[in-house]
Structures are given as C-alpha cells and as structure tokens.
Amino acid sequence: MKTGVLGSHLAINDVSKRFGDVRVLEKLNLNIKSGEFIAIVGRSGCGKSTLLRLVAGLDEPTEGTLLLDKKEITGIDPDTRVLFQDARLLPWKKVLENVRIGVRDGNKERALEALRMVGLEDKANEWPGVLSGGQRQRVALARALAGNPRLLLLDEPLGALDALTRIDMQDLIEKLWQKQRFSAILVTHDVSEAVALADRVVLMKDGAIALDVAITLPRPRERDSGFAYFEKLILDRVMERDTSLEQEAQLKVSYSI
C-alpha cells in the first residue's frame, strides 16, 4: 500500500439542511485543508452526524454547496471512506475477505497489507464472530484504509469500546493518519478524544459552529497541563458554563499554554 496519500481539501459553503420544518444545519461554513484532522463535538442533535452524511455524499443539502477538491459533492466519492461506530463486517465472510471489499480491484495482497497496518495479519482467516470489539473495529479500519482514501470520515467509531482499547485505537488512528496523510473528520462526544487526535476541534450547537479552536500541542499528545487547558476550554463551551474571556486567559496562563 502506498504511503504519502494526498488528503482532500473540503469546503463547506453556507450549507443548510432541513427535514420538513425541522432545521438541522443552518448556513454552516467550514474549510478543511488537505491532510488536516478535524474533530467535531457537540451535544446530541446538534447536527454532527447529519453534516458527516452530507460530506460522505449519503444525503444532499437543502441549501449551499460542499466542494471536495473544488468539485461539488453529488454522491459517494470513491476516495472517501467512512468508519462507523458499528464495524459492519459481513459475518459470512472471513476477515481477509471483509477487508478486500475495501480494495478497488479486490487485490488480496493489498488487503493483507492493510491488515498488517492494524496489527491483525494473523487474523486474516478468522470469522468476524470470534474477534473482540476492538479487533472488529481494527478490521473495519483496515477495510477503509485498503482503498487509500483521501478523506476518512469517522462517526463515533470508538464509542462502544472499553477505555484501554479506545486509547489503543486512538493511537493507531493517529499513527496511520500520520503515515498516509489523508484528511480526516472525526465526530465524537468525547472531548478528550477530540483533543488527543485533532488539529482543530469544532464545536457545533443548534446546527451552526459555536467554536473552532486549533489544538497547538505537539504529537504524540501527552495528557499534561496543556491538554487539560484545551479539554476544559472546549468542555466549558459544550456544557455552556459561564467562563469569561478573562477567566479563559487566566486558565491559559496557569496551564502555561
């Protein structure tokens, strides 16, 4: 599998989405650079997953445009892959055959290489039913990466995993992203996960962007005072805590950012 895959550039321009009289997104604008890792957080119902479906080409906006490498998204793009919370493996196919689904020409060696990347080459001939939850998500990740995507969309992919497995998967996703340099959008309720993985964290509220903050921490991320600063900054906004600009400035100094 080739490395150095060039990530896609995504421009979301004045996008609105309504279902009948229900407004889900309203005049949303977001720009994602090639190779950038974005995390989108917010309370349930704020429009995160709806936005991801629009980017994936699984739905159409009511108004506005989504441009992927300057071309309007009008359907599913072969260079875009999605990793869901449920691994969605086919139980009647062995692990290798599940991964081959993601390979454009079905090349077996490319599928095996993808399994090697996620540390599961030795599980190639196993049935999905015998794997742990974390292993199934690794297979799903291998399937997504086997197609050398330029844009990877992650919709709460680690939400059902235990804490230690979740951290392992976060580390794996970061390493693979650094190697392949695809663009990535992660939708998550976990602010800590967003800070650990993203270049920028975007907070959505009522179908609009309420906060867009760059995470200026070196990689790999250590859960130190700097990490705690960004985590608290974003959590306060998610929870709508009354934190003044002066308090935020004091917090920044105390955490030495």
Automatic annotation (TrEMBL):
It comes from the Bacteria. Keywords: ATP-binding, Cell membrane, Membrane, Nucleotide-binding, Translocase, Transport. One of its GO terms (molecular function) is ATP binding. SUPFAM superfamilies: P-loop containing nucleoside triphosphate hydrolases. PROSITE patterns: ABC_TRANSPORTER_1, ABC_TRANSPORTER_2. SMART domains: AAA (SM00382). PANTHER family: ALIPHATIC SULFONATES IMPORT ATP-BINDING PROTEIN SSUB, TAURINE IMPORT ATP-BINDING PROTEIN-RELATED. This is Aliphatic sulfonate ABC transporter ATP-binding protein. It comes from Paenibacillus naphthalenovorans.
